[in-house]
Amino acid sequence: MEEEAVGEGSDAVGRARKLLFRRMLVGIKDGRFFLGGFYCIDKQGNIILQDAVEYRTTRRSSPSPLEQRCLGLILIPASCRATCHVDCSIDEQLSLLSLT
Amino acid sequence: MSDTKFQASEAFAMASNDRTDGNATVPPPRSAIHSGDNSVWADASPLLHAACQDLKEGELIHGDNFNLYAAMSALEIMDPKMDSGIACKYYSLEEAIEDGAAPIPISVDKTTDVRCTIDIMDHLLACEATWHKGHSLAQTVYSCLYLLQTERTSSHALLHSYCKVIQETCKEVLSVVSDARTHEEEDLFTMSYGLPLGGNGDEKCLSMLNAVEETVSRQLRACKASSSKKRVSEDIEPLQNNPDLEEGYCKALLCRLRFRKHFYHLLISMRRPQGRGLELGRKHIASCIAEIDSIRKSSMFLRARAQEISGQNRSNTTASGNQPIGFDASINCRLAAPTPPRAIEILSWEKALDYFVKLLQDLDHICSYTLDPSLEAALLFVVNFQKSQPDLVSRAHLQILLVQGGKLYGREPIFSVVIRAAGLPEFTKSHVIQENEFMVQLGQLVINLLKILCTNAAWQRRKLGKMLQDWRVTYVQLELAFEKEFGETSNISDNKHISITIFQQILPWVEEQTYWIAYRFLILGFELELYSVHDYCMVYWYIYAVLTKLAEKKHIRMAMSSGTAKKKTKKKRDYLKDARTDYQIPAAVLFLQSQIYLAEGLSMMLAALRNEHKLVPPQSPFNTEREVFMQQFELLQKACLPDHVSYVTFKESTIHADFSTQVLSDHFKEAHRIAKDVKSSFAHDADMMAEIRRIEQVAEHNNIALNVISRVGALEPSLKISFTFTHHPFFATAIVKRS
């Protein structure tokens, strides 16, 4: 992963700030997904989502229909986060998220 | 923002293709969770990672509306206390069933199947008792996977009928408690969201249960007949395979089935309006208790069978000691609040049986009530009922019996109850005065009082305290209405004359009732252990003040209703201690008098002990004695009950108390004498006789203690004085010891 030069460090922060309140889909290690508005992130990478919905399969082992329930404001520790996706248009995807 | 669409599992399989981070352990359903039209899910991890690196320690990326305090309330995922979605054994009921957690039949071997069925029945009983004790249905009774989908059990007659009757029983109990609205502190009992509570309440479950009971009865008869070598007329298929165990298992099953049948019948009987089913209820209670006895006796046989099988997985929630099959409390945990429920312990099987026996005894107490139309009798019944510390379910049943549709026992309109209580003649109960808004308010207060008296002691005391002002305000409003309507009239018609009489008798009755509530509020403090020994002096003094007023108002009310033309007296002197009264003081008032002397005696004795430094309150920088007084009696003071009573008057009364005079001793002597004299009037009432005897004992023992203290001298250092409630629940007895 390429990192920005130190002088342009705030650029990443600025672009991350643009993601605030967008719908974010965070997957965690036990297979559950949480969809909510991106509310906050700290230096350790802990994320807070607002109006979050939890998606879970009804069978642990095999593919099966998802069930969902509303949780409200949640905190996802960095240690259990597996994936993190953001809802954006195809154009935005390139400019906002690319680091090259 | 476009709406989220949620697609079925076909899209699920395709999703793993476009992952960029190479983590293939968990296939993401990102395609199953639509991102919306013209938008995609873009991987934000690299950007966020870079941003985090550039952040300073303690710095956050957040929006303008961010509130750290609110953010602290966020549920933390993967924290077991906050995240109820954490994977337990099974993700869903379907998964559990597919994995064989609740097999039907339980076993192909009929003996094992029967044995396991009995274990399930026992564990369900333990769960039911735990639920009654104040936990949620989801964690207790509905932790049974068979109950969550009863259609599955339809091929297994025993299990199916048992599950159905459990569902109907729980629904009945839930309905009574919900109607009574006595959830009290925790509302867990009535939480039932998403649970399959049961059918339409028709008694179809009973016919199924009866059919199964009939079959098992025949099987029992058949095995007894074959064991005694008699000819069996019918061709009955045995319950299970082992002929030596047939009788034991049949008997064990029969008592369990019969208990459920009678218990369900009991609940239905008690629900019949106006107490019509009470007598029948008592018969079912007797049957239930007999069946519980048989259930207990069956444990020896069942435990012996269990020991042959396995030593592991012992459980104290079944008679056999085996773990029951088909229970998982975690399946339901997502049905409740977002956070996981507190871990609870299911009652042991033995304790569950004890619980049900107590419940049945309390319900029997209710069913034996004669539905006396007198309000005083109803209040006394509730107070006596509460002495055995009954649980939520029986208290809810009592409340439903007492107050139905705004009427006493569902049949006595509340105004006529009040009329009777105030000693007015029967014909006044249809008087138009009942439509007066304050009379209606008074009726509501009476109903609320009856309901509150059925709640647990802590809740009850809180509500009674709050009620005092309402009663006081209603009294003032009634008094004002009376004065407004009849104050200046000189020409009084017949009809108005009746109205005047009604008001004149209801007003002192309202006061009497208010003081009774105040008295109950004060003595509940003893039951709840709210007073320290250093508070006793002021508490007994206040009880003495309240009882004095109570007796005065009761006397006025009784005198008025007995027809003697007595004008409402406003004198505040010692009305009762005047020996020149020219009529018999009613026994009820005399009884109160003995309690007044007792309270006064105790208060003065404690004051004397304090004055002579035998009972020294701790010097606290937080609460002076005046502050303690204000805290203890704030609600009474606010309602001016009684008037002209304050910390100052308390101090004035007690500052000079000492052991040198005979005055202290006189209080206990009088209390004893009056109690003895009044016994003959209550010879027919067992509860009153017991109470009078207790008062005699307390008076006697305190008198003796007082004599010892006077003789030895209170300042004698070897003298140790303590207080106990062995003779009476709230009148203390002094114990004097010389070390």
UniProtKB/TrEMBL annotation, chain A:
Per its record, how is this protein called by name?
Sm domain-containing protein
A Pfam family of the record is LSM
Gene Ontology CC entries for this record: NatC complex
Task: State the source organism's domain of life.
Answer: Eukaryota
In this chain the Sm domain maps to: 18-76
Task: State the CDD domains in the record.
Answer: LSMD1
What the entry lists under InterPro entries is as follows:
LSM_dom_sf, LSMD1_Sm, Sm_dom_euk/arc, snRNP_SmB/NAA38-like
From TrEMBL, chain B:
Keywords from the UniProt entry:
Cytoplasm
Domain spans labelled NAA35-like TPR repeats: 365-734
- Region Disordered, as annotated, extends over 13-35
A Pfam family per the record: Mak10
InterPro entries associated with the record: NAA35-like_N (IPR057983), Naa35_N (IPR007244), TPR_NAA35 (IPR057982)
Residue ranges of domain NAA35-like N-terminal in the record? 57-149
The highest taxon in the source lineage is: Eukaryota
Q: Where in the cell is it found?
A: Cytoplasm
GO CC terms, sorted:
NatC complex
User: Do you know which PANTHER family this protein is assigned to?
Assistant: GLUCOSE REPRESSIBLE PROTEIN MAK10, N-ALPHA-ACETYLTRANSFERASE 35, NATC AUXILIARY SUBUNIT
UniProt family annotation: Belongs to the MAK10 family.
Its recorded name reads N-alpha-acetyltransferase 35, NatC auxiliary subunit
Q: Which organism is it from?
A: Arachis hypogaea
